[in-house]
Amino acid sequence: MEIENRESKIENRGALFLDRDGTLIIDKDYLADPAGVEILPGIPAALRRARELGYELFLFTNQSGIGRGYYTLDQAHAVNARMDELLGLPAPIFREICIAPERPDQPSLYRKPSPRFIQEMIARYALDPAHCYMVGDRPSDIESGQNAGVHPIAVCTGKLSADEWRDLKIPALRIYADFGRFVDAL
Ligand SMILES: [Mg+2]
What we know:
CATH superfamily: HAD superfamily/HAD-like
Strand order of the largest sheet: 3-2-1-4-5-6
Number of helices: 7
Distance between the termini: 35 Å
CATH architecture: 3-Layer(aba) Sandwich
Strand content: 15-25%
Bound molecules: magnesium ion
Order of helices and strands: EHEHHEHEHEHEH
Oligomer: single chain
Radius of gyration: 16 Å
Helix content: 25-40%
Number of strands: 6
């Protein structure tokens, strides 16, 4: 008898859940125009490397600008499409994308720090939480990872500097200068 693994695409059952603004692209506060997308340095190579290591990639972004009426869901999709284009990696880059459109004061199932998207993806793709990471530039990113039982990873390319992250004294938080440095350590 031979048992064959036919699901080699997710080799380590691991995944990276990635914030968008301040993690993959420059955070421009309520970015609505695809022409404004600027990829942070080193991101395409780091994403490529993460995929080579067998990690599935998921995009997990709060976009309260939609709930606030600053831009539409279609515009958010257009920004994501422009980001994909600039990343230049084989499509689809992200296995699934979660855009949480609510304002902070609105009820929401998915808005970070909710763990729900991460939990649903872990169940849907039979991921191993021990090999899953939530990477972001804000405390709400970290909290969603903690709430989902995956490793929280802080980057310093957005809202907070390394000193500001350290001042928060979040137990077991790993802090990297940028996403590329984190992938180097995987
Ligand atoms: Mg962010």
